[in-house]
């Protein structure tokens, strides 16, 4: 099973963008699984609405004893080949056929597992900014997944449609961890209205900014959106983990120490300069429901502090040397011409 997953990861690395569409790097999968299952002694089942090759679901199995996930692993995948990869992946990792259910189909337009929800853990790396029907289908605004927000995700960017879908499948005690493109956290229009719905209803547990170049096929620094329906207060935590990575041959990786550091920040909920800050609901509302990490966590100033007096002294010395050299050159030229 691990060898099979290794082959898939190598394929994704070599296939570039197309490969990254169905494979989430193991280091990121590990972090997402641990965020979704954090603090839960057991979960009824785990679900991925954009399952890809199943790597996120399988990381949950690797990170936690199997008895913690009581009723198994669920996912939906639109691509037929990838759907088959996911099912094969489950078998190869010794998950019994009655403990997983991967469905084929369009999650947004033809969602499966409505009878199996809610789920205590949801993990997902949905496709970034893909087109979808959106407002061209007037029935969607009445869909129980999208109706509460009062607006549909833009037709050109389905990101928030996947997020609202995941939220509607999430249980009252559960948590969802979703890989998200940074733009959805600060753009205006319908996306801003959906952010307002999420913040006003206190669903946003944390937004975590990861390092760039962690994923195959994109160098963009993605975020993890953590959703919860049982927050103890109305604050949202912002974590800037963009500096936590190790450079590898083709891309960056999160090492175990980086994952542990992010999870500790998430667990402690303490403000740490340049790394983590919890922001009140009121402040986010005043900031037009902007959820970009950089708006709340101040970046470390890496600029060098320069002593102006020393700099001026160096400049004066340099000018004096230039004048001396110029005089010597003039003297040599005069002797040559003499």
What is the terminal-to-terminal distance?
88 Å
By DSSP (H or I, 4+ residues per run), the number of helices equals 10
List the helices and strands in order. HHHEHEHEEHEHEEEEEHEHH
Structural class: alpha/beta
Q: Which percent bin holds the helix content?
A: 25-40%
Strand percent estimate:
15-25%
Instruction: Provide mean pLDDT, rounded.
Output: 90
Q: Which spans of ≥5 residues are poorly predicted at pLDDT below 50?
A: 11-22
Summed up, the domain count is: 2
Q: How would the global form be characterised?
A: elongated
Indicate the multimeric state.
Answer: single chain
Largest sheet entry: 9 strands, mixed
| CATH architectural type of the largest domain | 3-Layer(aba) Sandwich
Query: What is the number of strand segments?
Result: 11
Q: Give the spatial strand order of the biggest sheet.
A: 3-2-1-4-5-7-6-8-11
Give me the Rg, rounded: 26 Å
Q: Remind me, CATH topology of the largest domain?
A: Rossmann fold
CATH class of the largest domain: Alpha Beta
CATH superfamily assignment of the largest domain? Vaccinia Virus protein VP39
């Amino acid at each position: 099973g691990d060898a099979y997953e290794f082959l898939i990861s190598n394929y994704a690395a070599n296939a570039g963008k197309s490969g990254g569409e169905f494979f989430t790097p193991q280091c990121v999968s590990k972090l997402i699984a641990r965020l979704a299952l954090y603090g839960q002694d057991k979960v009824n089942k785990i679900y991925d609405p954009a399952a890809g090759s199943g790597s996120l679901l399988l990381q949950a199995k690797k990170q936690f004893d199997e008895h913690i996930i009581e009723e198994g692993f669920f996912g939906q995948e639109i691509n037929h080949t990838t759907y088959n990869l996911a099912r094969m992946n489950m078998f190869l990792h010794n998950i019994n056929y009655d403990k997983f259910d991967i469905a084929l189909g369009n999650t947004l337009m033809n969602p499966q597992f409505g009878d199996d929800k809610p789920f205590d853990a949801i993990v997902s790396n949905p496709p970034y900014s893909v087109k979808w029907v959106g407002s061209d289908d007037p029935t969607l605004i009445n869909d129980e997944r999208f109706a509460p927000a009062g607006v549909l995700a833009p037709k050109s960017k389905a990101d928030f449609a996947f997020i609202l879908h995941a939220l509607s499948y999430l249980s009252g005690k559960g948590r969802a961890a979703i890989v998200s493109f940074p733009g959805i956290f600060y753009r205006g229009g319908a996306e801003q209205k959906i952010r307002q719905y999420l913040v006003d209803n206190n669903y946003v547990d944390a937004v975590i900014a990861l390092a760039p170049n962690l994923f195959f096929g994109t160098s963009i620094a993605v975020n993890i959106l953590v959703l919860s329906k049982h927050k103890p207060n109305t604050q949202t935590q912002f974590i800037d983990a963009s500096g936590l990575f190790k450079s590898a041959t083709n891309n960056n990786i999160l090492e175990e120490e980086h994952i542990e550091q992010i999870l500790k920040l998430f667990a402690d909920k303490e403000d740490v300069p340049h790394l983590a800050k919890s922001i009140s609901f009121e402040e986010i509302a005043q900031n037009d429901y902007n959820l970009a990490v950089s708006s709340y966590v101040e970046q470390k100033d890496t600029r060098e502090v320069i002593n102006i007096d020393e700099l001026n002294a160096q400049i004066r010395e340099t000018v004096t040397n230039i004048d001396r050299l110029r005089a010597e050159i003039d003297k040599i030229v005069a002797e040559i011409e003499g």
